């Protein structure tokens, strides 16, 4: 069936009972006129290069000799500065567990839409589309459960019996990803002259999130975003994408797509690590450094018209009152807390339709 091009055709597009009603609620975004006006050229995504992210084998980090360990640390630090992204194998999370949670995630998202949006499933963490979108490039053709880990631990946290297994799997995956994030953040912090356990202390189970993403097939322009371009509002993200593909990152001012690798987990630097400046009182070396050593890089997800896509993301976040960057020399950013950062992001998304992020806090 050719993709519908007018709002009339759109109504004919039969979404499944579990798909969010994107067409009905956002028809004004997809009507022919809106589409004609919207120049997708700014996010030209037709012919783009596919890249292999830097692939880092973590076995050298834990059981390699000193030389291999140092090489592994250097690979992690270099990729975080040059790409802002890398992928890791021998990360300690079993492929079987990741396959199992994708099965349960699919079963969970395939519940009727009304059930997902109406009930308190996963503590009202459900979100879909983008209610403030006024144009296609502010819209995300996806649905997600953005779950605070603190809620995952709560007994009886609005889980229906038939999804107890999903909750248990989420706890297992969150636990493993937390451990991996702590190790990687420790390596990156130490490379900045900071205590290795700085993040273990400022990011606890109560401040981090696990996000389940589903990207339904999209029958409209192949340039519709599954998730609009953004940088992550955290220190570090650990991401498992399934075999479908669609994730792209900005590299040398061009979008490049990231080839799915079922054995690997993707790691990307968030805004907070880019702005991070080790509090001087625990700076362990006189390394001359400032912020922006590691790069929080813009990325997006593109839809496809054929198959749904799933991903699961772990966000390493500090407590709301954590100070991210002091304005002491040589910081490029004024002093701000995570709470101020998130509030500014939400205000910008509401008023402009886009996240502005770190540039709001430049000195
Ligand atoms: C890490 C995150 C940043 C984000 C919320 C999220 O937890 C995952 C998606 C991100 C995104 C992408 C589109 C928008 O820019 C945004 C405001 C949103 O609604 O989801 C950002 C979020 C953010 O920066 O807070
Ligand atoms: O689904 C993906 O591959 C990326 C998701 C993402 O960027 C996010 O949840 O912040
Ligand atoms: Fe992201």
TrEMBL record:
<dbReference type="InterPro" id="IPR027443">
    <property type="entry name" value="IPNS-like_sf"/>
</dbReference>
<dbReference type="InterPro" id="IPR050231">
    <property type="entry name" value="Iron_ascorbate_oxido_reductase"/>
</dbReference>
<dbReference type="GO" id="GO:0045543">
    <property type="term" value="F:gibberellin 2-beta-dioxygenase activity"/>
</dbReference>
<keyword id="KW-0408">Iron</keyword>
<comment type="similarity">
    <text>Belongs to the iron/ascorbate-dependent oxidoreductase family. GA2OX subfamily.</text>
</comment>
<keyword id="KW-0560">Oxidoreductase</keyword>
<dbReference type="GO" id="GO:0046872">
    <property type="term" value="F:metal ion binding"/>
</dbReference>
<dbReference type="Pfam" id="PF03171">
    <property type="entry name" value="2OG-FeII_Oxy"/>
</dbReference>
<dbReference type="InterPro" id="IPR026992">
    <property type="entry name" value="DIOX_N"/>
</dbReference>
<keyword id="KW-0479">Metal-binding</keyword>
<dbReference type="InterPro" id="IPR005123">
    <property type="entry name" value="Oxoglu/Fe-dep_dioxygenase_dom"/>
</dbReference>
<dbReference type="Pfam" id="PF14226">
    <property type="entry name" value="DIOX_N"/>
</dbReference>
<dbReference type="InterPro" id="IPR044861">
    <property type="entry name" value="IPNS-like_FE2OG_OXY"/>
</dbReference>
<keyword id="KW-0223">Dioxygenase</keyword>
<dbReference type="GO" id="GO:0009685">
    <property type="term" value="P:gibberellin metabolic process"/>
</dbReference>
<feature type="domain" description="Fe2OG dioxygenase">
    <location>
        <begin position="204"/>
        <end position="318"/>
    </location>
</feature>
<protein>
    <recommendedName>
        <fullName>gibberellin 2beta-dioxygenase</fullName>
        <ecNumber>1.14.11.13</ecNumber>
    </recommendedName>
</protein>
